[in-house]
Design brief:
5 strands; mainly alpha; 225 residues
């Protein structure tokens, strides 16, 4: 499920769809209300998707287990077949497996939509938007970012801290740490700052500036920003 497959794409997979040499699943058809269709929900649905290396090994082991149990693994046989050899029913799988798993894990909800949104959200820190759009096989990147990706307080806090640190550590040209030559003060200037008077900030002003990534250290120092 790390491939973010829709149930309509997952359950009609046949053994010929598993390309062991390249560790890839070739989505060739979908299922809707028990009927196999040669097309998918979007233009990107009928395509090849990469499989995690470990999952590829487990699929091979699963096929070997099926063969030992006398289950058909011929190219046209379904990888996830029901008792009669037809594709497993997605609704039955949700009730029999996902709902039970949700109760055991004390999750409020667990279905394929939740799984796909979880994968999209986890993907935010694993690749760029186009990569995740490709995994989700959305026609538009906005669907991936605006509908599927979720934001959480710890991630936002980390982003705020990283942005603040970068702004705080950045010094404008002319500072000793910036690598750029400092401007020569004009003769007779009262503060040695090219004729500019030294700013005087109160505590409220200072904390507001710090929120913008700017810090005033007092006379003789530059403003960071």
């Amino acid at each position: 499920m790390s491939n973010a497959l829709r149930p309509s794409e997952l359950f009609p997979l046949r053994w010929r769809c598993f390309l062991e040499e390249t560790n890839t699943l070739d989505i060739q058809e979908t299922i809707y209300r028990g009927k196999i269709r040669p097309y998918g929900k979007t233009k990107g649905s009928i395509t090849r998707v990469p499989v995690a290396d470990v999952l590829g090994i487990e699929i091979v082991q699963y096929r070997q287990e099926c063969e030992r149990n006398g289950i058909d693994t011929s190219p046209d046989a379904f990888m996830f077949a029901g008792r009669l050899g037809n594709p497993m029913d997605p609704s039955n799988y949700r009730k029999r497996v996902l709902y039970k798993l949700a109760r055991e894990l004390e999750l409020p909800k667990l279905n394929f939509q939740v799984i796909r949104r979880t994968i999209a959200t986890l993907g935010k820190s694993k690749g760029n938007v186009k990569d995740i759009q490709g995994i989700m096989r959305h026609s538009k990147a906005s669907t991936t970012t605006d509908v599927y990706m979720q934001s959480f307080e710890p991630e936002m806090r980390m982003a705020v801290n990283l942005i603040f640190d970068e702004l705080r550590d950045h010094r404008r040209p002319g500072h000793a740490d910036s690598g750029a030559p400092a401007a020569e003060p004009k003769p007779g200037s009262p503060s040695g700052r090219n004729g500019m008077d030294e700013p005087r900030f109160g505590e409220a002003d200072d904390i507001l500036l710090r929120g913008l990534g700017v810090r005033w250290e007092g006379a003789g120092d530059e403003v960071e920003g």
